[in-house]
TrEMBL record:
Residues 3-52 form the HTH dtxR-type domain. It comes from Blautia luti. Pfam families: Fe_dep_repress. This is Manganese transport regulator MntR. InterPro entries: HTH_DTXR, WH-like_DNA-bd_sf, WH_DNA-bd_sf.
Amino acid sequence: MKLHASGEDYLETILVLQKKLGMVRSVDVARHMEVSKPSVCHAVATLRDGGFRREPP
């Protein structure tokens, strides 16, 4: 999957918040990026469909 800049932004935000908070919720990403929760859900679904998966704890 070719990753666009917006996908990279979401992944970077998720990583930063995961290191800061330990667990990341869509509302956390939405607030941090100043986007809507549906936008986050769509972006995460697109990343997941493109092969990006959450690592088991």
